[in-house]
């Protein structure tokens, strides 16, 4: 999703609508910069107490939150579906499952990654050292529209567990659900006796997001487009506020000539059409070996034409609507441009004429080339792009020919072959014989390379991303204190440079002979003042 921090300001309120039915859902306020600053100040006051809580107490809050989510999972899924257009199944899988797993993981592993960590002191044998991971303060999160529930909690669980306060600015396209979805965390805090103001939400347009970056937060997390990521960095640079950026992907799928086509096809379909393609780690480019190409195109085309598109809350629906009105125009323009350039339209390629909402038909394009705009730009829609490859090397070359490098996958019956290709592919996460499931492995860091951004969301890296690292170096044994050797005390001796050079050679020279000569030189300089 593309959370635009430089959008033209809207006056007073945002109008919200259901992307599937176009039903008016009401208003949410466009908060002013002053209101944003007040929200950050409220979170900071609560954080000053929250940061003193034990990990045990934080686990208790997370457990209460998880049970609240489970007890209200149907309502959460329905609200997320209405606000973003996704099906109930996509909401259960992409929104609720991922959040519950993050809560489970942070409770089981979070403390181990945040407690003080002993480190080696190297040459300083009389010293001991620890690295402490302390909460950075208040984190500002600007999140997109593709997963209104998961994007909220996926961004704030780690900072809150690390001891931070959080202020979240949701996308203007999915702000209707924020008061309810966000309230769950505040309810969990209050139920456990903590100040719910620790977690704040500020709604509005791009000016609200920009105000959050400039509000005095101690860290900014932004999920959106590369263009707006650069704008966030520029604004944050004025106060040297650190940022973590996840800026989308153009994820490739490589299908080798020995791949199990029966395994690959359902994964490819889910990889492309999950959440109508509005998925940062969705499959956008498929590179398939020549011998499997025609069979693959025929079978996915048959499935694509049979997919049932309709209202997200209805039964028997495979795919829903697109969340942002303008995104349909972007997707359609890219599709039509590719067809004019020689791509074969296997199915779809238009707005659904039988539905009134923001529906674009599941689309498949074959005979696509890497030079086409649709291959180089993030589509973020229900479009499968199929390209034929002549070898493993050819497939990797095409897969890496992109400005993006968030994730990717490779399929082969030969595990060693697949893993070799995975190591050659560029991306923050490469899966072998699977798609997308690495995000459920919360122990693993998640983030991209190139213009897909930097910084990590999951794993110990994601937890520590919300922390400042502080080193404590102390005496190993009480009473054994350091002192400056006499030769280094002012005024220094005339032969001190020779002594220092000899010490360097004693410690770092390769081989015992060199070290012995250095020791000899040291003794001469120390005892007789000779060079």
Question: What's the structural blueprint in terms of helices and strands?
Answer:
Layout: E1 13-17, E2 24-29, H1 33-50, H2 55-71, H3 73-84, H4 88-114, E3 117-119, E4 127-135, E5 138-142, H5 148-161, E6 165-169, H6 178-191, E7 199-201, H7 206-213, E8 219-223, H8 226-237, E9 243-246, E10 251-255, H9 261-273, E11 283-289, H10 290-306, H11 325-340, E12 344-347, E13 363-366, H12 373-376, E14 383-389, H13 392-399, E15 404-405, E16 407-411, H14 415-424, E17 429-432, E18 449-450, E19 453-454, H15 459-464, E20 467-475, H16 496-508, H17 512-528
Parallel strand pairs: 5-6, 5-8, 6-7, 8-9, 10-11, 10-16, 11-14, 13-14, 16-17
Antiparallel strand pairs: 1-2, 3-4, 4-20, 9-19, 12-13, 15-18
Helix pairs in contact: 1-7, 2-4, 2-6, 3-4, 4-5, 16-17
Radius of gyration, Cα only, in angstroms? 28 Å
Low-confidence stretches: 1-9
What class, by secondary structure content? alpha/beta
Shape: globular
Give me the count of strands.
20
Count of helix runs:
17
Give the strand order, joined by hyphens, for the main sheet.
12-13-14-11-10-16-17
Helical content, roughly? 40-55%
| Largest beta-sheet details | 7 strands, mixed
End-to-end separation:
68 Å
Percentage beta strand: 15-25%
Mean pLDDT, all residues: 94
Structure description:
With 531 residues, the chain is of the alpha/beta class. The chain is 43% helix and 18% strand. The protein has 17 helices and 20 strands. It has helices at 33-50, 55-71, 73-84, 88-114, 148-161, 178-191, 206-213, 226-237, 261-273, 290-306, 325-340, 373-376, 392-399, 415-424, 459-464, 496-508, 512-528; strands at 13-17, 24-29, 117-119, 127-135, 138-142, 165-169, 199-201, 219-223, 243-246, 251-255, 283-289, 344-347, 363-366, 383-389, 404-405, 407-411, 429-432, 449-450, 453-454, 467-475. It has a seven-stranded mixed β-sheet with strand order 12-13-14-11-10-16-17, with helices on both faces. Helix 3 crosses helix 4. The longest helix has 27 residues, at 88-114.
């Amino acid at each position: 999703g593309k959370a635009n921090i430089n959008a033209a300001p809207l006056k007073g309120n945002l109008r919200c609508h259901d992307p599937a039915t176009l039903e008016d859902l009401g208003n949410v306020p466009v908060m002013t910069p002053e209101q944003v600053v007040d929200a950050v100040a409220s979170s900071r006051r609560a954080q000053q107490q929250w940061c003193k809580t034990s990990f045990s107490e934080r686990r208790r809050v997370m457990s209460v939150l998880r049970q609240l989510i489970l007890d209200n999972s149907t309502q959460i899924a329905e609200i997320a579906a209405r606000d973003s257009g996704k099906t109930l199944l996509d909401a259960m899988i992409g929104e609720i499952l991922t959040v519950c797993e993050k809560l489970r993981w942070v409770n089981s592993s979070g403390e181990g990654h945040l407690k003080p960590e002993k480190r080696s002191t190297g040459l300083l044998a009389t010293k001991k050292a620890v690295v402490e991971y302390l909460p950075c303060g208040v984190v500002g999160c600007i999140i997109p529209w593709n997963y209104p529930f998961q994007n909220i909690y996926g961004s704030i669980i780690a900072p809150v567990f690390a001891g931070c306060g959080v202020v979240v600015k949701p996308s203007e396209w999915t702000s209707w659900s924020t008061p309810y979805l966000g309230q769950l965390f505040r309810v969990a805090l209050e139920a456990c006796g903590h100040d719910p103001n620790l977690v704040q939400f500020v709604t509005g347009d791009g000016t609200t997001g920009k105000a959050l970056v400039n509000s005095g937060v101690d860290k900014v997390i932004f999920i959106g487009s590369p263009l707006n990521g650069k704008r966030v960095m520029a604004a944050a640079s004025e106060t040297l506020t650190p940022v973590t950026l996840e800026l989308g992907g153009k994820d490739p799928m490589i299908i080798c000539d020995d791949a199990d086509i029966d395994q690959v096809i359902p994964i490819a379909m889910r990889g492309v059409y999950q959440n109508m393609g509005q998925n940062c780690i969705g499959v956008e480019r498929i590179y398939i070996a020549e011998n499997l190409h025609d069979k693959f195109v025929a079978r996915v085309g048959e499935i694509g034409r049979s997919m049932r598109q309709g209202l997200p809350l209805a039964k028997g629906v495979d795919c829903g609507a697109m969340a942002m009105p303008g995104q349909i125009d972007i997707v359609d323009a890219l599709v039509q441009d590719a067809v004019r350039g020689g791509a074969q339209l296997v199915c779809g390629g238009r707005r659904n004429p039988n539905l009134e909402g923001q529906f674009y038909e599941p689309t498949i394009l074959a005979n696509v080339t890497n030079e086409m705009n649709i291959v180089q730009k993030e589509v973020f829609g229900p479009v499968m792009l199929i390209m034929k490859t002549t070898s493993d090397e050819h497939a990797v070359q095409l897969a890496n020919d992109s400005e993006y490098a968030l994730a990717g996958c490779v399929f082969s019956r030969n595990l060693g072959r697949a893993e070799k290709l995975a190591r050659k592919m560029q991306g923050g996460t490469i899966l072998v014989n699977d798609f997308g499931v690495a995000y459920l492995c919360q122990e693993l860091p998640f983030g991209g390379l190139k213009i897909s951004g930097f910084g990590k969301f999951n794993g110990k890296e994601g937890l520590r991303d919300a922390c400042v690292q502080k080193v404590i170096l102390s005496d190993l044994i009480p009473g054994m204190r350091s002192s400056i050797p006499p030769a280094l005390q002012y005024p220094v001796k005339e032969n001190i440079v020779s002594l220092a050079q000899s010490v360097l050679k004693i410690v770092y020279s390769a081989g015992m002979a060199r070290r012995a000569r250095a020791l000899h030189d040291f003794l001469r300089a120390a005892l007789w003042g000779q060079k």
